[in-house]
Amino acid sequence: MYRTHMRIIADILSIAYSAEGTNITNIVRKANISYNRLKYIINTLTEKGLLSIEEVDGSNRYIISDKGRRFLEAYSKFYDMAESFGLKI
Amino acid sequence: MIIYFYKKLVIDIVLSIYEISILLVAFIASMLIARSAYQGYKITKSPTLLRLFLAFLLIGIGFIFITINSIGIMKLFLISLIIQIMGYFFLAFSYSIQSLGFKHMVPAIALVSIALSPLFVIPGNSIEHIIRSISFVLIVYGATNTMIAYMMQKHTNTLITANGLALLALGEFVSWYGFIYPDSLFYQASLVIKVAGLITILMPIYLRAVRGVRIGNV
Predict the structure, then answer these.
(1) How close is the nearest chain B Cα to the Cα of A83, in Å?
(2) Residue B161 — very low, low, confident or very high, per pLDDT cuts 50/70/90?
(3) For the segment B199-209, what is each residue's pLDDT rounded down to a tens digit?
(4) B45-58 per-residue burial string, b: 16 or more CB within 10 A, e: under 16
(5) What does the angle CA B141 – CA B142 – CA B145 come to, to the nearest 5 degrees?
(6) Count of A–B CB contacts within 8 Å?
(7) A33: which residues sit within 8 A by CB, 6+ positions away?
(8) Residues of A in Cβ contact (< 8 Å) with B146
(9) Would you tell me how many other CB atoms lie within 10 Å of the CB of residue B125?
(10) If exposure means fewest CB atoms within 10 Å of the residue's CB, which of A49, B3, B168, B171 is most exposed?
């Protein structure tokens, strides 16, 4: 199924939504996206302050930031709106 | 004779007040949908929401122009129809751009052919007839696509919006009959149907705001 770029970002942020965050392998698997593309998106998201990186036991964990949470809540709200028109955002 | 004159005057005044009130409700409903879409566009930068914003903004502006025309300040009826058809175009465009491929355009082409056929039968064709028929086709295209989306996803909100768009199309169709029978109440009835359609479209947006956000759904 075709996903818009915005939808992929929302999927990544949803995966990193929990308090303890998640690792890159989990994001690749759950978001169903190639590693190279994911790396590029994650760099953009961290630059924009939507995602933060923490080092735990020598490995990087990706955690959604407050800004990311606000974005995801807003996205979810307007995703529903577009969906009610039978459209995708 | 005087009583008849006063009776007619009172009926005209009541109809004018009714018409203006309905038009203002339609304007407010359109603007509320446009506002919601614009808020979404500002956050997500989604072109789909921008197109929805432009669609309902133009439909709303069209209603306010019809109101100005009804009050009698300026003759803006034709301009208002042109503005509204641009709004309906943006609405239909949102669907056509997402459903790429010729097979999705077949129902639209069929509908255009059916809608244009009366133009050759009704005597004294005018630009209003043409605009009304094209508007009708564009909204029916949007309503059909929304109904297809409902059948695929089975979301209640999509069904409500599809019904709203269908009511909007029905309103456009009935107002078209208002041109053919100018002294009838077709035009007033069409306004009520259009307002009902816009309020129906508005319902899922505000129900969602009341219900809250579901993150897990993304």
Answers:
(1) 7
(2) very high
(3) 999 998 887 76
(4) ebebbbbbbbbbbb
(5) 85
(6) 99
(7) A8, A12, A27, A41
(8) 85-86
(9) 13
(10) B3
By the 10 Å C-beta count (0-12 exposed, 13-18 middle, 19+ buried), B79 is classed as middle
CA distance A33 to A29: 7
- Shortest Cα–Cα distance, A47 to chain B (Å): 17
State the distance between the two ends of chain A, measured CA to CA, in whole angstroms: 14
State the ipTM, two decimals.
0.78
Nearest to A25 by CA among A44, A33, A17: A33
A79 with A62: CB under 8 angstroms?
no
Angle at A81 between CA A80 and CA A84, to 5 degrees: 85
Taking the model in full, what pTM does it have? Answer: 0.81
Closest to B33 measured CA to CA, from B97, B104, B94: B94
Residues A12, A28 contacting (CB under 8 angstroms): no
Measured CA to CA, the distance from residue B127 to residue A69 in angstroms comes to 51
Per residue in A23-60, pLDDT (tens digit) is: 888 889 888 889 899 999 999 999 989 998 888 888 88
